[in-house]
Amino acid sequence: MTQYNHPDHFEQTVQPYQQQPQPPQQPAQLAGQFAQRFQLLAANIERIIRGKHEVIELALICLFSEGHLLVEDVPGTGKTTLARSVAASVDAEWRRIQFTPDLLPSDITGVSIFNQAHQKFEFHHGPVFANIVLADEINRASPKTQAALLEVMEERRVTVDAEPHPVPRPFLVVATQNPVDMDGTYPLPEAQLDRFLMKISVGYPDHVSEVEVLKGMPTGPQVERLPMVARASDVSGMIDFASRIHVADPVYDYIVAVCAATRTSPHVRLGASPRGSLALLRAARVKAAAAGRHFVVPEDVKALAVPVLAHRLILTPEAELREVTTAAALGEILAGMPVPQAA
Amino acid sequence: MLVAAVAGVAGWGFHRVFPGAALLMAVVPAALAPPAVAALTGRRPLWLALAIDLVLWFAGAVLLYGGPQPALFADVANAWHALLTTLLPAQPEPRLLVLVHTLVWAAATVGAETLARTRTRIAAAVPALVVYGVALLLGVDGAGSNLPVAAALLVLIAALALVRENRPAAWLLGGVPAAAALAALALVAGPLLPVPAHPYNPREDADLPPPVRVDSVSPLDRVSAWLQIPDRELFTVKADQPLNWRLAVLDRYDGVRWTSGARFQPTGGRVPEGEWTGRADVVRQTVTFGGLTGSWLPAAERPEEVGGVRGLAVDPDSGALLAAAAPGKGFSYEVTSRVARPAKQDLLDATPADDASLTAFPEGPQRLLFRGLAEEATEGVDTPIRQAYRLQTYLRTNASYDVTAPPGHSLKGLEFFLRTTHRGTSEQFAATFALMARTLGLPSRVVVGFRPGEKSGGVYHVKSGHVVAWAEIKFEGLGWRPFYPTPGRSGAEDDHEVVSSAIEESEALAGELSQGGSDRPGTSQPQPAGEGERPPSGPDPWLVTAAAGGGLLVVYAAVAAVLPWWRRRSRRRAEGPGPRVLGAWRQACDDLGSRGERALTAEDVVTRHSAEISTHLRPLAEISNYVRYAPDGVTDAAATAAWQRSDAIRRAVRAGTPLTTRLRNRLLLR
Questions:
Q1: Residue in B with minimal Cα distance to A249
Q2: Which residue ranges form the domains of chain A, and what is each CATH number?
Q3: Of B619, B625, B632, the CB nearest to A18
Q4: ipTM given for this complex
Q5: Using 50, 70 and 90 to split pLDDT, how confident is the model at A220?
Q6: Considering CB atoms only, which of B601, B622, B637 is closest to A14?
Q7: By the CB < 8 Å criterion, does B326 face chain A?
Q8: Cβ contact (<8 Å) for B601 and A13?
Q9: Is A268 helix (H, G, I), strand (E, B) or coil?
Q10: Are B530 and B477 in contact (CB under 8 A)?
Q11: pTM of the model
């Protein structure tokens, strides 16, 4: 993957094969620049989050897809640090909201307060008005408070007293939840889960990475000292570019076929919605651009199918009894799904 | 579905052995079940699929028998020999059909599992072809043709080779009609192939069952007894012309008794044709048993088709019929017989057959007596047919018919008949004629039967008094010809038309021979074949089989050698750089053994292989992905580079694969 992802490599291997003269050289070059910046960002974050290149890449794909990320893992594995590192690398404003049972919706979105001096209500922005919002232990808040995130995650604005207040761009919600200590928690409803582009798990670092983390303390790299490698405006431009990445018809078919197969799988009670297909497409476009390509290939779709779709599926009771996971059900679908041939 | 059809059609090749719907019961479940099991078990272990198949085979066999059969496995093992010793068509008994059931099941199982677990297509049809070959061998002398079955097999195998998920429908739309046209051509050209007129018949090499003594009392011993009570109705025959009804054929004589040396074989109704294949009358009879006892079944000479008898057995040499169980009163069956009507010239040219067992004479002093009398009767005549007629005339004129004469046909009894009484029944006349003929070197036997009987309402009522024995002599090409040495009851005229007409015919023929001026000596040279007889011609069957097998192998080897080359060449010369790049990728996948794994992406294929191969494979995968999914095209240089990568991969694979493995892959068309 390293060799393939390198933008120079892509330019060296693919560009000579393009027919001459061909204006579409520009997308290829832009894709190369996209990949360069993407890898720069990933390398920057990896200075803090050791040995988790794939997780970092997924988080960045979320960022450039304008999606949101749900990280489910045990405490201490770097969920919060990941969000902070992303924010620090792109020079973006970031806020952390610790979700508790007594948290109110207005504590997230903000509130209108009457200003005696101006004799009018003024909106006081809540912590959600930031580029990167870390919703820590989201499942500890009440469903009403969780629902407060729904509008802003989907429509990227908060409406208070019939007045919309847009959130800044880029906007990424990184929510975390602890799968172990489930007492007093409110599992996220399906509608809310569907609004997260991906659900990932950071996982423990491997031995070598953990040793490096220990060696780096307390003088090693810290989030506060992480250099900014991309401006927020750069990120917006990259988002726009990724949304224009070419997708061939067979790849559209492949995405739809994979999602449709989740609806007919014997293990799955509720399959992926069309929102899932759209999410997979957006993410695949970013992954293609991150690889320096200006077109999506089935490998992009296949690699992202599990993180993008797995949390949207609900298994049948029989499958749960047999301890089949949504990832395994998806793996089975992908293993039997023919990859599209030539267009 | 196609595997089931191929196995089923191959099983239908047994239609020459088992005509009728009973064969379907054996073929259809055995052909359908294994492919269904293969489809359902999919990627589960092979042993599981085979275990389920075995259970279904057993269930199919139980269905065939109509219940559990303890001797099932013994029947499967013995069915081969039973079929080889059965005259076709065979009775559709479960103990025989179970062999077809087992063969079709095995073909369907091996074919379906081969198809489900490997990428080979044609190999899945090989077991069915083997079954078809067995059906051809076992049904070689059965009625009907297997050409339509062969044509159907050809079309189905072509469809099996062409139907693939990733192949456009045009392949099937074009390939199957082409195969159908080829099959039609084969149907037309098949009969013109230079195959032997008499193909190899494994029944000729099978060990036939030993001669069995059918009844405790020889029918010849019963002649006198029947004549003592002449009015007992034995059976009736509904036929459109009067004929002598043959009951038993006795061709062995030990000095005391005439017995049958017949080797009876089970049959479903067909009787092999006799030696005479020329002009003949076809007579249909419906025989209904009355007071006749024993297992012999009366019929006019010579039966060719019998219907309505379960457990029918037939002696292919004599055409004598036998029922497995003695029929009771009212038992009825239909027989179609051919009554030979040879031309005069055929009779005149007839030479006696060369068979020592049919000219054997028991040791004893009577031999001189019989020979002396025979030479006296045939003095001055050395033509075989005329010698026979002289003997017939001699006995008819020098002895008289008397139902009160002492019974028996031992040598001493016949000596007493010849020297002293000169009176006897057809028992003595026929036995004496046969023995005298043997002393002259004429192969002879005795037949016990009945005269046509009394006609009433279109039905001949045959009574015990109608019993008659006559002698027959075997001639080359003619087969057995009857002679009636028994005089009529009055001593001058016979009282029934069949014998009378035979006598008249023989006397006319004898006169014609005399007017010819000379008795032409008998010749042992082969005579011209009779009408309808085809002389054996064509090459040796083993040679044809070996040549056909060798030809098939050569064709297969040629296809195995040429197909990969042709495929690579067409990919390399595809129209446009894009298709050429994709051709290079597919060629690399073929060389790496990844063909048909359609769920793999290019990256999946790359990560499967070693660094040495990935060095070339990864750039090739990138170019191939570019051609497939990028909005822009590629140049000829890209196609050239792709094929350079593909060729490098091919060289690396060849270098890392042992020669034997490469050869095996090539032969299996991988």
A1: B629
A2: 2-16+23-205+229-336 (3.40.50.300)
A3: B632
A4: 0.79
A5: low
A6: B622
A7: no
A8: no
A9: strand
A10: yes
A11: 0.53
